[in-house]
Amino acid sequence: MKKILLVEDDPNLGLLLQDYLQLKGKFDVVLCTDGEEGLKAFNKHSFDLCILDVMMPKKDGFTLGKEIRKVNEQVPIIFATAKAMMEDKASAYDLGGDDYITKPFRIEELLLRINALLKRVSKDNAAVELQQTNFEIGKYTFDYTTQLIHFNGQQQKLSTKEAELLQLLCLKKNSVLTREEALLSIWHDDNYFNGRSMDVFLSKLRKYLKEDPKVEILNVHGKGYKLLVN
Fold this sequence. Notes:
One of its GO terms (molecular function) is transcription cis-regulatory region binding. One of its GO terms (biological process) is regulation of DNA-templated transcription. Keywords: DNA-binding, Phosphoprotein, Two-component regulatory system. This is DNA-binding response regulator, OmpR family, contains REC and winged-helix (WHTH) domain. The chain has helices spanning about 10-25, 35-45, 60-70, 85-95, 105-130, 160-170, 180-185, 190-210; strands at about 5, 30, 50-55, 75-80, 100, 135, 140-145, 150, 155, 175-180, 215-220, 225-230. By secondary structure, it is of the alpha/beta class. It folds into 2 domains: about 5-130, Response regulator (Rossmann fold, 3-Layer(aba) Sandwich), CATH 3.40.50.2300; about 130-230, Arc Repressor Mutant, subunit A (Orthogonal Bundle). Helix 2 runs parallel beside helix 3 and helix 6 (about 160-170) packs across helix 8.
């Protein structure tokens, strides 16, 4: 469940947004009523997204956003304000805001913006992960760029799909790589024949990694596979 920091000084609107996002968006929403309380909450918890009202007592939303950016440069921030002036929009983006919504707004629109931001961040994180090319797998080392597994001075050359599959398993090491995710990422289609083809590649990878008893590629029934490294 994604965790959202909502900082809104209007208690009625704040509770309405909190209830709606928790019910419809299935988010865990922490509600604060001023900027100082919001900063304390941000420093105490880990959030996936922040919604900051601009006009607030004690500490306005722009100041809060600036202080959040000093701590975390990546967390998405949506600024909400009754002002629609171009200067405010420019300030929101200059301070590292990711989106800007003007009051009054439809709650459904806010939910759409939240989901779009979280989806974009998820894709960005996945792209960064896929840039990793060197992995340690127990006593093995794997270089995705050269498609080579190294072990005790020997090396095993992998095919392109074997290397792509092993990279996904490494990125999910000790966690489940779903069958659908692997098929769509590598074969771009999760049909039966591609599934059988992937099973063959998994058998080959198990053979390549069999010399280290602490390394296993497990079948997780009904879900997918797990590269287990003890």
